[in-house]
Amino acid sequence: MRRPYRKLNIDERRILATMLQAKATKTKIAETLGRDRSTIHREIKRNWWHDTEVPLADGYWHMTAQTLADRRHLKRCKLEQHEDLRNEVIGKLKDGWSPEQIAGRLKLEPRAPHQICHETIYQYVYSKSGQSQELGRYLPARQKKRKPRYARKARGEVFPLETSIHNRPEEINDRSQFGNWEGDLMIFERAQGNANVATLVERKTRYTVLLRNNDRKSKPLMNRLIDEMSPLPADARRSITFDRGFEFTSWRDLKTGMGTKSWFCDPQAPWQKGSVENMNKRVRRYLPRDTALLSLPNRYIGSICARLNATPRKCLGYRTPAEAFRDELMKLQR
To answer: For residue range 201-223, what is the model confidence (pLDDT) as tens digits?
Structure first.
């Protein structure tokens, strides 16, 4: 596995300078420091001191090399260098903006004195200065320590090939089997915070379940689904089809918690779970994006759900989803 890169510290630079003066090869220096030869070569090239007034002073000096490296680091850290930019970024983070949204908005502002990359904001948040201000608490998904880029899981690993919707059994695709659901998350305006509504639709009967959540993180969402669906018979909760949103990265909890399998649509293909997408449009009649979700009583969400399940559907021969769902449950009990 690839090792994380670490900058040379002052002690390593002192050894490097001493060995250079002793005419040691770069390969020998790299072996002594436990570094790659290219790292040593790059360090000497970048931090070699050139004195225009006293040419004899040219060379690699460990204190000078440390100073040059520190200066470059400060130059890269725009948020350390520019107080006005730093205050603006911190203010947006506290208002609930993500680093990507902050960086993207700054590019649109014609009078913005500075532009910044969202990666730079993340690095600042997880730096000592950012941690001392507890900026991580304002991120959409907080981690105690940020993993190096090479260690972050690609979505292909989070949602492996065997869970692709293309591998879903035909009895699920043609809706002939009961107990297979589609799930999605309805998001509301930023002013409403992280409040959201999880939508579940059973594919065969179109029976709908709405769950209000105060968090968009995957673990709490999966725990909520388990609590809601566990009372059903195992054959009434065989599988759930999701999209590839980060809200569903803890899908394995469904398998271990209640034996429910998960399937995932292709990237950028929400139409592959059309039942729940169509249901979301119906729910939006009652819960538009500017809804103050946290101010609504639980019975209001329940009343919407009951209304949807009591509405006759042409695809069910004008039976209601509640009637169709009840009939399927009775078949399982026989």
So the answer is: 999 999 999 999 888 889 999 99
- Tokens 């009649």 found at: 285
The last residue of one of the domains, among 45, 76, 107, is 76
DSSP structure class, residue 203: T
Q: What is the pLDDT of residues 131-174, one digit of tens each?
A: 888 888 888 766 656 655 544 555 557 888 899 999 999 999 99
Task: Give the predicted TM-score (pTM) of the model.
Answer: 0.56
Tell which phi-psi region holds residue 196, choosing left (phi > 0), alpha (psi between -120 and 50) or beta: beta
Compute the C-alpha angle 248/252/257, nearest 5°. Answer: 110
Number of domains within the chain: 3
Contacts of 116 by beta carbon, 8 Å cutoff, 6+ apart: 78, 79, 85, 89, 102, 103, 106
300, burial (CB in 10 Å: exposed 0-12, middle 13-18, buried 19+): middle
| 185 in any annotated domain | yes
